[in-house]
Specification:
heterodimer, A: 218 residues, alpha+beta, SH3 type barrels, 3 helices, 5 strands, B: mainly beta, three-stranded antiparallel beta sheet, two-stranded antiparallel sheet, binds zinc ion, membrane (chain A), transmembrane (chain A), transmembrane helix (chain A)
Chain lengths: 218, 114
């Protein structure tokens, strides 16, 4: 009984054996291209969709973003180098080109190539995660969160009025002013110039009003 | 050693009568099968390496770990190197076309087989 498939498989095995370094190099090349494409894609998203500047961020987040980007840069750089190394071999490696030594060296190189490729893959994925994390930070951290403490105070640019009455002064955002009186909305917290009660709308009859003066803040 | 017999190229499975030596390399990464072809009596050396396409090795198993010993049989085909009539030019063979199985001896320490 002749099982030719067995012989063909054995022949294929001998062929693979002779060409396995070429095979893993080609595989590494494909992987390198894929990883480079992925990195470019995520980098482009970061450039296009990331916040314009980190200047408005609180210090701690600014440093986090910087550290994430620096780590991502190092990881991606070393990952790219590893991938190139896997695809094209290390510079400066030497061996005796005698049959047996070469055979062993090829087996070694196949293993090193695959190790380098696995390492390149790990580094690239970690680096991409760092970029995405930096991107997420830049999206999530509110602009000027540092100024959050002052959020109760009037933001610059929103006009306030200081209403002087016979009984005292009231300060707040002007809601409506008509013949019957002046309505202001007072901000939360005790205003320095505000002699009134808590926050909320306050209607002051026109008869009581002595003057209405625009002010920058209360 | 019997003289080489320039048989007509024929891909048939044969059953060796004389024993073959199966030698595992020092680092355990390849086997060398040596013996005389049962069909043409040419001396043939067949090498089988541990290579790619295997199951993924764990990340923690470093390359210092030598591969699992081969079990079962190694299919070997004649690579006597002599010309055999009617061998098709496109054939990758370097022998008479015969092939056979060589059982792998039970695992010995690498390189320990005499
Ligand atoms: Zn022969
Ligand atoms: Zn033969």
């Amino acid at each position: 009984m002749t099982d030719l498939a067995k012989k063909r498989a054995a022949q294929l095995g001998q062929q693979l054996q002779a060409d396995q370094l070429g095979a893993v190099r080609r595989q590494a090349e494909g992987w390198r291209n894929g990883l480079a494409g992925l990195t470019g894609l995520v980098g482009a998203v970061f450039v296009l969709k990331g916040r314009e500047s980190v200047a408005g961020m609180p210090d701690v987040w600014r440093w986090t973003t910087a550290a994430l980007l620096a780590a991502a840069f190092l990881l991606l750089l070393s990952g790219a180098l590893k991938a190139v190394r896997a695809a094209h071999g290390q510079v400066g490696e030497h061996t005796w080109l005698s049959g047996d030594r070469l055979f062993a060296a090829v087996l070694d190189e196949v293993e090193r190539t695959q190790d380098a490729l696995a390492s390149a893959r790990r580094r690239s994925v970690t680096g991409l995660c760092a970029i995405v994390a930096a991107l997420a930070v830049s999206w999530v951290v509110p602009v000027g969160a540092d100024e959050g403490k002052k959020a109760d105070e009037p933001a610059p640019g929103v006009p306030r009025v200081l209403v002087t009455t016979q009984k005292g002064t009231h300060c707040g955002r002007l809601v409506v002013g008509d013949g019957g009186g002046v309505t202001i909305e007072r901000s939360k917290g005790p205003g320095k110039k505000d002699s009134g009660r808590g926050p909320g709308r306050l209607r002051i009859p026109a008869a009581e009003v002595i003057s209405v003066t625009p002010v920058g803040r209360c | 050693m019997p003289a080489h017999d320039p048989t007509t190229f024929q891909e048939t499975e044969v059953h060796p009568t004389a024993p073959f030596t199966v030698h595992r390399s020092d680092d355990g990464r390849w086997y060398t099968v040596t013996g005389d072809c049962p069909a043409c009596h040419g001396r043939t050396v067949f090498r089988v390496a541990h290579g790619v396409l295997g199951p993924l090795k764990g990340r923690w198993r470093r390359r210092d770990a030598e591969p699992e010993p081969l079990t079962g049989a190694i299919p070997v085909y004649c690579q006597c190197g002599y010309p055999h009539p009617e061998r098709p030019p496109e054939s990758p063979d370097a022998g008479c076309g015969a092939f056979w199985d060589v059982p792998v001896p039970p695992a010995t320490p690498p390189g320990g087989a005499p």
